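INTERNAL AUDIT FORM
Audit reference: QA-55
Scope: verify that the stored structure record matches its stored sequence.
Auditor: D.O.
Record contents follow.
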Amino acid sequence: MKNKIIKSEDPALETANNSDIDQSLKLVARSSIIIFAGIIISKILTYIYRIIIARQFGPEIYGVFSLILMMIGFLTPFINLGLNEGLLRFIPQWRGKNETKKIEYATSFSTKFILLNSIIISGILFLLADFISITLFKEPQLTPFTQIVAVFLIFMVFSRFLLIIIRSYEYVVIHTLLEKIIMTSIHVLFLILLISIGLNSDSIIYSYVAGFIIVTIISYIYINKIIKLKFHSNIDDSEKKTIRKELLFYSIPIMFSGIITVMFTWVDTFFIGYFLGTKDVGIYNAAVPIATLMLITQEIFLHLLYPIFNREFSKDNIKNIDNLSKQVTKWIFMINLPILLFVLIYPHYIINLLFGPEYVQASNSLRILSIGVFLSSIFYVSQRLILVKGKSKILFWDLFYTSILNIILNIILTPKLGINGAAFATTFSWIILSLLWIYQTKKYLNIVPLRRKMLNISLVSIIPFLFLIYIGRIIKINNLSIVLIFITYILLYYLLLLMTKCLDKNDITILKAFTMKIFKTRS
């Protein structure tokens, strides 16, 4: 089946002749509202939680908390063995065939398997708490945090497991509400409550655990009462064996991908803790969440665009995928570019505003990390396209080799350059990974998801960039003025985009779709 396709890049997109592209873009825009709201609220609450910890307890304790997050992230793939993703794939398929008993057995098997793994790994973590804390990181304060995590690790794992089941049954709103809003709200509220009653630094780990415990209970009740899923099934042994084999065969490779992903994400924090100490971990992790703000845009758009990519690929509409990927990359670039420029000019003021003066040492790390995150956010579209092509093994090896590179660079640079060395190692690895993705997208799909208008946007951004430099020299910068400067700068940037016609007809279509959705929601 052949569709009418767009022959040229920019002119065709300007006229928006392709109705398939237009409808797909509108779907992304309208559907993004729910995802956008959940992600934004979650991010805000997460940053509030981190900021309270950082300001209330100082860099050292905040560093201890960051190491705890690293440990949880590393252990989780070993516990669930990729079964979460396995259920997310197979439950919808079995539901479509009305094979309820298969779902019941798969969830029962996964529950028992994860429960056993949780008990074993929790026990090992509890016994190794002193070794991890004192021998590895030379931080005695890490021991009680590690032991508490070991005791309650089962809730951290099962909350995610139960949420996956809810998502598999397509209760998207409930899933978003529980994972993005309720859990993070509990973290913040319990932290404030426990600090107010004088629990001191223990309030951090207890408030963090509380979110998982409450969401686990709510999720179980919802699955039991609303979905009415039974965690047991009477089917013959041969069918059980087939289900186990099918589930594990799909899930275990995903476990390894999860482990590599965690390694790539947390390797800088690990080596800062190992070579420098928890105080430096805390200072560095003031820069990380600020830099990763730019990942929100890719998370919103690509969460929704990936199914559209798959749909178009099934129809062999490669040209439509090409145009969609270029358009979304342009949006991500257009939104993230002013954030990057602002961070490059005023990193110390941003850190001071959010985390306080004790963390300003991370200013250069923030600059370095922001460059890596910015490039990664743009080229992440390529990663999705490679998945659409079915080249998941290639993505695994991309991540594996760049993780090894990241480890080597951290070992070399962190002892010599401190947290800036760790930031450079991670950013360089991100850049290499992004270049691999863009090369492989070109190789396997003949797509380079970049638009020429991105160059126009870059040129236009020079004026507001010069404004930032000039205004910083003529006025005194404080917490209030930095907020006002940012608002003025963003307004100037987008006004210039409109005046110079950097926004094409498809961009206007998206803005109208967002606006209509908002007004429809309000009414």
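Auditor finding: record pair retrieved intact. The chain has one domain: 10-451+504-522.
Action required: none
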